[in-house]
Amino acid sequence: MSSNHKRPPASLIFIFGGSGDLNHRKLSPALFNLFIDGWMPEKFDIVGIGRRPYDNDSYRTHLFNGIRQFSRRKEEQSELWKDFSQKVTYLQMDAEKDEEYQKLAEIVKEKETAYGEHPNVIFYLAVAPQLVPGIVSKLGPLNICADTKCTRVVVEKPFGHDLDSALELNKLLASMFDEKQIYRIDHYLGKETVQNILALRFANALFEPIWNRNYIDHIQITAAETVGVEGRGDFYESSGALRDMVQNHILQVLCMVAMEAPVNFDADEIRNKKVDVLHAIRKIAKDEVHRNAVRGQYGPGWMKGQQVPGYRQEKNVARESGTDTFVAVKFHIDNWRWQDVPFYVRTGKRMNDKETIITIQFKAAPNYAFPPEAADTWRPNRLTISIAPEMDIRLRFQAKRPGQGVSLSPVDMIFSYKDAYTEQEPEAYETLLLDVMEGDATLFMREDQVAAAWRLIMPILESWQDRAPVDFPNYSPGSWGPEDAEALIARDGRNWVTLPAPHQE
Ligand SMILES: NC(=O)C1=CN([C@@H]2O[C@H](COP(=O)(O)OP(=O)(O)OC[C@H]3O[C@@H](n4cnc5c(N)ncnc54)[C@H](OP(=O)(O)O)[C@@H]3O)[C@@H](O)[C@H]2O)C=CC1
Ligand SMILES: O=C1O[C@H](COP(=O)(O)O)[C@@H](O)[C@H](O)[C@H]1O
Predict the structure, then answer these.
(1) Measuring CA to CA, which residue among 35, 45, 49, 46 is closest to residue 7?
(2) Domain positions in the chain
(3) What's its top-level EC category (predicted)?
């Protein structure tokens, strides 16, 4: 355990949804890893909340099983777990009943006395979105929340179902909490490689001068998954890929790639610069949607030798479902830096490979003196930022092949986290939970960002609601999505980039 850093102040963390999947797979492993790495406060307690009948012991066993299965640390940490788990308790409570909330106020009082100080009180809402407004409106009157310095509420995605519901939820939150107390989480922003975009762009003199329409041909963001909906059919039927991935993760990543340089790293400065990008993205008119967006749904088929069901055969999915499991969109940013540089984004489930990458495709070299037959590609300069499963950045440029005559082929200069650093990178949720305890909202979404992102995707959603898809399912598991997605980019004389073969094991 290292001790050369400042730990966050005393914290009392309530997890609504303490018996749920997110806590089991992500939050508890993250909190335990923070503990192992010496990042948890000297004084802390975690209270998991749910209706299931656990006692403290069975709850701790349930969480430890999750940690064993899902933590990035594969070695067993039984001794440290004993210490950590003493700080974890379970509170059986129905979050929809007003009278139960007094229990929370009592726990806060009890811990205040035990700590000898007022701790951060964090309410993490890891519950289905329809429960969030009810919980928020019951937390407000508890008065714990009156202390704007110490009390925080963390709201999981999806933040609203559409623009109206997001605005309504923002209004409700604002009536109970100060904006500084609200942490709208988007776990992509906690990923090391996503945070590194700002370091790459603004801590180097090398890239920024060419990071604009004069040198960049286009940008791509791909977030492809091999998994299907994994038993989440119920949730996914009311969501779809556009709401689940584009409205939040992909647009947030796009903002990191496209934003102007911040003058400092204050939370609001970064968020101001990001929201500027969202405001500058050209809104796609409803009657232009078919030219700029493609939706897809996977059918049954085979993936890596295994037979897999189609989306419509998944649990809790309608047999005639029109839900999108794949989306590709072409965006434009109407500002000085990005005019006429298309941003192609795509995401899908049951695709050929797990691959989250950003591709910055530079323009072709001017006055290309080499004979066309010397080169096997005419636009070789490309920067690829891999977010998952590999974490690396590769710069592709043209090189002369050894030998007589002139033959050119692209080569890659690679920075890989694995090779460059010995320390293991934290999981996104570790970074984000630590930020909440420290009161740093830089990596969380502000209300105007959420609303701006919904405004951009509403015309697409509305256009799709007006016209039921006639060709679903329209892509096979293990493919790169529907043919129309290829056409979307091919019409512009470009093609989707995937990682080179060694990545795709
Ligand atoms: N799972 C994941 O990987 C991810 C999830 N999310 C988001 O996190 C949130 C939670 O998802 P997930 O954990 O998968 O969902 P689950 O269905 O696994 O868990 C839901 C939780 O809510 C609790 N709950 C439901 N009703 C009540 C109630 N009336 N009173 C008290 N507790 C209640 C359940 O407890 P009990 O059954 O004991 O009552 C359970 O702990 C969702 O918004 C989801 O979109 C976001 C990113 C990834
Ligand atoms: O928020 C979500 O993200 C995951 C993908 O996250 P990643 O970190 O594995 O890229 C996605 O599977 C899920 O549907 C969505 O809700």
Answers:
(1) 35
(2) 11-156, 189-504
(3) oxidoreductase
Active-site residue identified among 161, 218, 249, 290: 249
| 138 annotated ligand-binding residue | no
CA separation, residue 237 to residues 130, 187, 231, 300, 311 (Å): 14, 21, 11, 17, 10
Q: Which residues contact 478 (CB under 8 A, 6 or more apart)?
A: 301, 302, 303, 304, 350, 351, 352
**Please, are residues 89 and 47 in contact by the beta-carbon 8 Å criterion?**
yes
192 is in an annotated binding site: no
Residue 332 a catalytic site member: no
Separation of alpha carbons 250 and 232, rounded Å: 20
Say if residues 316 and 234 touch (Cβ distance below 8 Å). yes
Q: Which atom of ligand 2 is nearest to the CA of 157?
A: 1
Rounded to the nearest whole angstrom, what is the distance from the C-alpha of residue 72 to the centroid of ligand 2?
A: 17
Pocket lining for ligand 1, CB < 6 angstroms: 17-22, 25, 49-52, 94-96, 126-129, 131, 156-158
How far apart (Å, rounded) are the C-alpha atoms in residues 356 and 346?
Answer: 10
On the question of a common fold for 11-156 and 189-504, the answer reads: no
- Bond into 309 cis (ω within 30): no
Does 390 contact ligand 2 (Cβ within 6 A)? Answer: no
What would the 3-class secondary structure string for 198-254 be? HHHHHCCCCCHHHCCCCCEEEEEEEEECCCCCCCCHHHHHCCCHHHHHHHHHHHHHH
User: Burial letters for 344-358: b for 16+ Cβ neighbours within 10 Å, e otherwise?
Assistant: bbbbbbbbbbebbbb
DSSP 54: -
CATH (residue range 189-504): 3.30.360.10
User: Helix %, strand %, coil % for the chain, to 5?
Assistant: 40, 20, 40
Q: Is 45 in the pocket of ligand 2 (CB under 6 A)?
A: no
- Of 288, 216, 228, 281, whose CA–CA distance to 252 is shortest? 281
For residue range 152-189, list pLDDT tens digits in order. Answer: 999 999 999 999 999 999 999 999 999 999 999 999 99
Nearest Cα to 95, choosing from 124, 55, 64? 124
pLDDT at 462: 97
Are 69 and 21 in contact by the 8 Å Cβ rule? The answer is: no
Atom of ligand 2 nearest to the CA of 236: 14
Q: Which atom of ligand 1 is the closest one to the Cα of 17?
A: 41
Give, in words, the CATH class of 11-156.
alpha beta
Residue 354 assigned to a binding site = yes
Q: How far is the CA of 228 from the centre of ligand 1 (A)?
A: 19
pTM assigned to the model: 0.94
Over residues 76-120, the pLDDT tens digits come to 888 999 999 999 999 999 999 999 999 999 999 999 999 999 999
Least confident of 261-275, 363-377, 476-490: 363-377
